Amino acid sequence: MKKPTRKKASAKRTAPPRPAKHGAKHPRSRQNNASITPDTDGKLTFNHAMVYVKDVERGLRFYRDLLGFKLIEDFRYENKPVYARLRAPGGDGTIALHQAGPEVSVLSDGVRLYLQVRELDNFCRNLQQKGFHITQLPRMMPWGWRHAYLNDPDGHEISLYWAGENRMKKTVMKAAQKAARA
């Protein structure tokens, strides 16, 4: 007598999220179909930084429209974005903008986003031409990286910088080098 065979369990397929309709009452997701799954050999990788903001739409105007980040997806509630994930225009780094509650502070002393751009001076000049205030114009720092500083609309500090070949090398302060030679 033949044994009955069992069907293997298969993953249930679901349709991708659809864009939010005008006046939607429930959170919806809008996604960009570009996806990258890096081969990490099981090693820990950095996924993204979550930035809590008072107004996701205002954050999108800054990170997407001014800095050039690409929208991966956003979630909406009553047709208003409450979460958005964006990809850096020149790499695979991502940030997520998350709507903070009405009584929640978005200040985050001690955390700063670092965004690298080769043509730092030109990039900063373009931001200024668009009317954006840069708190520190580009200058060479003691550790050998060229930095400019600015704040996003919620006051989160951002460093725009260019480190070039020094980015993944151990940094040594010039003052420390001089003291060691003395």
Low-confidence blocks of residues = 2-29
- The ordered H/E elements are EEHEEEEHEEEH
CA-based shape = globular
Strand content is: 25-35%
Class by alpha and beta content: alpha+beta
Tally the helices: what do you get?
3
Structurally, the number of domains stands at: 2
Major β-sheet strand ordering: 1-3-4-5-2
Whole-angstrom Rg: 22 Å
CATH T-level topology of the largest domain: Signal recognition particle alu RNA binding heterodimer, srp9/1
How is this structure best described in words?
The chain is an alpha+beta fold. The protein has 2 domains: 48-103, Roll (2,3-Dihydroxybiphenyl 1,2-Dioxygenase, domain 1); 111-182, Signal recognition particle alu RNA binding heterodimer, srp9/1, CATH 3.30.720. The protein has 3 helices and 9 strands; from the N terminus they run ββαββββαβββα. 14% of the residues are buried. The model is unreliable at 2-29 (pLDDT under 50).
